[in-house]
Amino acid sequence: MERGSRGKNLSSERFAPWSPKATHSTPSRLACLPELVQTSLMDYQGRIIRPPSEAESILLQVTTGCSHGKCTFCGAYQGKRFSIKPEDVVTKDIGYAARHFPDQRRLFLCDGDALIMPQARLVGLLDEIRSALPRLTRIGSYANAKAVARKTDAELRELRRHGLGMLYMGLESGHDPTLRRVKKYGDAAFLVQQGQRLRDAGFRLNVTVLLGLGGPDQSLEHARATGAALSAMDPDQAAALTLMLIPGTPLHAEAQSGHFRELTAHEALVELRELLAHTHLTRGLFLSDHASNRLPLQVRLPKGREKALARIDAALAGGVRLKPEALRRL
């Protein structure tokens, strides 16, 4: 998730659809593209999810679902079996994009696991994209740590040379007991290592974490360990979202049965403060401006830390208006 523009606000990750007829619209809706619209444009299977900073990007679906698919909190790809889409389908979509959107500057590879593709095919895909859409200045993708680990350092550098530049990685937590409980792939050391490898390969890195994932009993431990993990990864941007339980997920079922509880607004602010206090980035941007959060922050670290902590303290004291619960969303 190029070091050249650390100062640019990449925004935080959220669910949002894309329509090539409305690439300049505000990316705040959760609904997916209507099936008939999808069919008439490009081959989109199921709900398409992208980071908000990819609002003006061509969305090219090259895989469906997630190769791990076991995280108990995640409902992003419910009902989708993981697969790599046929080459002819992807090539047809690239051709459509080249004919209809030749001036687009950004392209995003969907779904959640493009890097799991065999190296030769992924390199060929990047070359095909750049040949068909020569005006592109950025190609982005989610970076599943499982997929990253399957690439050698040389392969990662090769992908960077062939045009892949922006990667979005979900750390979620740096607290190993929390990671195990929610069935995230890998422990904190593993996730940090994969993030560091991406940075070393020259990628621009955006890392997301989840406030409240440890529940109230592990809140401070989750926050401190996550801050330490973010500090070790040192991404261009760290984005904190607040956990919102999604019906149909195992974690939602845990909550329904009384075995898990979401944080209250006050508890979430305390956790946000602890997370920020323990996050030390070289020149990165720390955000809590996602729609799931109650207190939006955009903090340039390290210089903006104290001002942001003071704002959180003011919110804890009741001096800052929080987002109403009815307006929080994924």
Automatic annotation (TrEMBL):
<dbReference type="Pfam" id="PF04055">
    <property type="entry name" value="Radical_SAM"/>
</dbReference>
<keyword id="KW-0949">S-adenosyl-L-methionine</keyword>
<feature type="domain" description="Radical SAM core">
    <location>
        <begin position="50"/>
        <end position="283"/>
    </location>
</feature>
<dbReference type="InterPro" id="IPR051198">
    <property type="entry name" value="BchE-like"/>
</dbReference>
<dbReference type="InterPro" id="IPR013785">
    <property type="entry name" value="Aldolase_TIM"/>
</dbReference>
<keyword id="KW-0408">Iron</keyword>
<keyword id="KW-0411">Iron-sulfur</keyword>
<dbReference type="GO" id="GO:0046872">
    <property type="term" value="F:metal ion binding"/>
</dbReference>
<dbReference type="InterPro" id="IPR006638">
    <property type="entry name" value="Elp3/MiaA/NifB-like_rSAM"/>
</dbReference>
<protein>
    <submittedName>
        <fullName>Fe-S oxidoreductase</fullName>
    </submittedName>
</protein>
<dbReference type="InterPro" id="IPR058240">
    <property type="entry name" value="rSAM_sf"/>
</dbReference>
<dbReference type="GO" id="GO:0051536">
    <property type="term" value="F:iron-sulfur cluster binding"/>
</dbReference>
<keyword id="KW-0479">Metal-binding</keyword>
<dbReference type="GO" id="GO:0003824">
    <property type="term" value="F:catalytic activity"/>
</dbReference>
<feature type="region of interest" description="Disordered">
    <location>
        <begin position="1"/>
        <end position="26"/>
    </location>
</feature>
<dbReference type="InterPro" id="IPR007197">
    <property type="entry name" value="rSAM"/>
</dbReference>
